[in-house]
Amino acid sequence: MANNNPILTSWHHNADNWIATIAHNEIASRTLVTNQAIIQATTAVVKQHVLDVGCGEGWLCRALQQLGLKTFGVDAVAALITHAQTFDQHYQVVSYEQLISGCTLAANNFDTIVINFALIDEHTTAALLPALQQYLPQGGYLVIQTLHPHAIDTEQPYKSGWRPGGWQGMARHFDLPYDWYCRTLADWIALFLQSGYHLVRMQEPLHPHTQRPASVIFTLQYTTK
């Protein structure tokens, strides 16, 4: 996401609030469902080394390290990376545009890439997914967790498009709310196929209280076969 993108501007502005939100487990759906769901989906396919794209303050990298895996996290928001580096140095400030252009990272030999709730823009996402193959071997995996489209705007037509609501429902006061791009399940799958991935698995973790999807997780494999 470019520096003039309102999504990235908002994340820069709200970085400290986000760090505190995660540190204090203030998002119930994460603590109840989605944190463990993405850990399980990643460990189901990873061999040794994970690249966390849009890693934020680094919680997922640290959780995977505790399971004995090597990790490296990248994010465009310097304040989030600075916080992550207080735990270890396996992080780098890198934008999605830099990844798309094939920038050199301070680590390599990844066998799995994970993106956890970090695909928000329309065109950047479409450009990023095929570009990430530069950092994967043949047969490597890309694991994506994102908002489930069936759980959003249930009274609105079910179609891909921009939605309001960045920072809705947060316990703390976040400024500069942003629009984000919602894709239908069919449009996600079409994008994966166009980007050169094979869909291995789609999971829909359920919220234990509502029995509604809390997210959707796609496990993809990079293969030219």
**By helix and strand content, what is the structural category?**
alpha/beta
Task: Extract low-pLDDT stretches.
Answer: none
The overall pLDDT, averaged over residues, is 95
What overall geometry do the principal axes of the alpha carbons give? globular
- Rg (CA only): 16 Å
- H/E element string? HHHEHEHEHEHEEEHEE
Please name the CATH architecture.
3-Layer(aba) Sandwich
Estimated helix fraction = 25-40%
Number of helices: 8
Number of domains: 1
Largest sheet: 7 strands, mixed
Please list the strands of the largest sheet in the order they lie side by side.
3-2-1-4-5-9-8
How many angstroms does the end-to-end distance come to?
Answer: 31 Å
What is the total tally of β strands? 9
Oligomer: single chain
Commentary on this structure:
- The protein has a single domain (6-222), classed as Rossmann fold (3-Layer(aba) Sandwich), CATH 3.40.50.150.
- α7 links the parallel β4 and β5.
- 32% of the residues lie in helices and 20% in strands.
- The protein has a seven-stranded mixed β-sheet, with helices on both faces. Strands 6-7 form a two-stranded antiparallel sheet.
- The chain has helices at 6-13, 15-23, 28-43, 59-65, 78-84, 96-100, 123-131, 185-194; strands at residues 49-53, 70-75, 91-93, 112-116, 141-146, 161-163, 180-182, 197-203, 216-222.
- The model has no long low-confidence stretch (mean pLDDT 95).
- The protein is globular and about 45 Å long.
- The protein is α/β, with parallel strands linked by helices and 225 residues long.
- It has eight helices and nine strands.
